[in-house]
Amino acid sequence: MQILKLTFFCLATVLVTFLFSCQPPEAPTDLTQAPLIPQPVSVEATGTSFELTDRTVVCVQEGLENVGQYLADKLAPATGFELAVKTVDKAPSKRYIYLSLSGDNAELSNEGYELAISKNGVNITANQPAGLFYAIQTVLQLLPASIESGEKQAGLWKLASGTIKDFPTYSFRGSMLDVSRHFFSVGDVKRYIDLMAAFKMNVFHLHLSDDQGWRIEIKKWPNLTTHGGSTEVGGGEGGFYTQEEYADIVKYAQDRFITIIPEIDMPGHTNAALASYPELNCDGKATELYTGTEVGFSSFCTSKEITYQFIDDVVSELAALTPGPYIHIGGDESHATKKEDYLPFVNRAKEIVESHGKIMIGWDETAQAEIGANNLVQLWNNADFAKEAVGKGAKLIMSPATKSYLDMQYDSTSRIGLHWAAYIEVDTGYIWDPATLFPGIEKENIIGIEAPLWSETVTNMDDIEYLVFPRLLGYAEIGWSPATVRDWETYKIRLGQFAERMDAMEIGFYRSKSVPWAE
Ligand code: ACM
Question: Which residues pair with 9 in a beta bridge?
Answer without folding.
Answer: none
